[in-house]
Amino acid sequence: MNYEPVLNNEHAQSSPFGGRRGLTILAIESSCDETSAAICADGKILSNHIANQTIHEKYGGVVPELASRAHMQNIVPVVDIALKTAGCTLETIDAIAFTQAPGLIGSLLVGAQFAKSLALALNKPLIAVHHMQAHVMANLIDDPKPTFPFICLTVSGGHTQIVLANSVYDLKVIGESIDDAAGEAFDKSAKILGLPYPGGPLIDKYAQQGNPLAFKFAEPQIPELNFSFSGLKTSVLYFLQARKKEDEHFIEKNLHDLCASVQYTIINILIKKLKKAVKQTGVTQVCIAGGVSANSGLRKALQKAGEELNWQTFIPAFEYCTDNAAMIAITAHYKYLNKEFADLSISPSARAEW
Ligand code: KG4
Ligand code: ZN
Which residues line ligand 1 (CB under 6 A)? Predict the structure, then answer.
């Protein structure tokens, strides 16, 4: 579609937060089990609201059909509160952005249809955003921000990637998982330990009181900058099966040490590859992103590696690590400036290619 980008002071509106507001974007994220809406003005996040779906807890994982239904219930109130918090109305926004891929197709469809309907009804441009690119771009929300080029380790529930960011418009995946994602390794290990979904945050919590060297789990040897995490859950499973034969309360008695050891293994795998990526590219500004970047152990390990190896490290605020619409909004901001608009015929896609 043919829309001219607004320059910051044209279209400027008076803002209840003081000053004048330029390019204003409403963004919607609905790729998995969080319904989120955010408003970004001139590259600054004015609001970011997230409705979590607790319904999946009792099933031990996200149930796609239930996620779609919950998105349908949540989307209007979440968008409404994002607009109100930012002091905007639908009429005062300049574009509508949504997560186009990857994700659960039914969940993506709710956000995509909602965004497309708004774009059509309001006659405003539509911007399609790739969820994994947006996780990387979350590092450009708050100061201090990395400058280009930088490396980003994106670790989420569905993906593990090392991305070389040469510019906003030139992001390259230079390494990725060949099987499970780091988040899956946390969640599946947690499930084996009898913890509810999503287990990542709980492993993080219990690990803080445990000994990371108490138990040793296998670290796979994967070439280049790629990862493999599927062996870890099997290693945890076999280890526990053997120990439970000797003591059926082994997990309860050792939960903190088990969590600390699993977390230590995952972090070790991630940091080793990150060091390799820095060595290969010569790029020493290093970011992390995605749900697993909320992990306190990973955040500390990145800082430690940075201090030891003289990297500049960047970690998004917690609210911008797990799925959120603010990262969709910031990505859309740059897409708008580059006139990357989507046609109303665009469909969401569950696939991850970008
Ligand atoms: O990015 P995200 O919110 O959703 C996807 O795009 O997948 O990531 C969700 C993943 C889940 O696997 C969850 O267990 C993990 O991030 N996670 C954590 C922590 N917080 C969320 N893993 C470890 N420690 C945490 N504190
Ligand atoms: Zn995500």
Answer: 32, 156-158, 183, 186-187, 198-201, 204, 290-292, 294-295, 322-323
